[in-house]
Amino acid sequence: MSQSHRKYEEIGEWSHEVVERALRDDDTEVLLRAVIGVSMHHDDWRYAQGLCVRLSTHHHFNVRGNAVLGFGHIARVHQQLDRATVQPIIEAALRDTNDYIRGHGHDAADDTAHFLGWSYDEKPVA
Prior knowledge:
By secondary structure, this protein is an all-alpha fold. The protein has a single domain (16-116), classed as Leucine-rich Repeat Variant, CATH 1.25.10. The protein has six helices and no strands. It has helices at residues 16-25, 28-41, 45-55, 61-78, 83-94, 99-116. The longest helix is centred in the middle third of the chain and has 18 residues, at 61-78. It starts with 15 loop residues before the first helix and ends in a 10-residue tail after the last helix. This is HEAT repeat protein. It comes from Rubinisphaera italica. InterPro entries: ARM-like, ARM-type_fold, CdiI_Ct-like.
């Protein structure tokens, strides 16, 4: 499916078991949803952050982009993130050649700036 044709869908909570199975199987279609569900609904921000960090280097652009977007969700929901770990990933996303990843980099930068007070030296125009 083209990156510009994905439509919105409500994503709920995800269990550790389902997420771990998707990671083990490298199930792209599940992972691109799981990372959003975990970042929005999981009680443990460290677990959610760890999943986003791990998936921020996934081979599929939708999974990578959603992982970056997940950082913004965690910032909004938990108002916590490990800046030393996460900010460089968001900054790299802002420079990514893929529009989907770059767009979610902007979303995550906006959310971390708003909810966590982070600033970015350069924020390229989308």
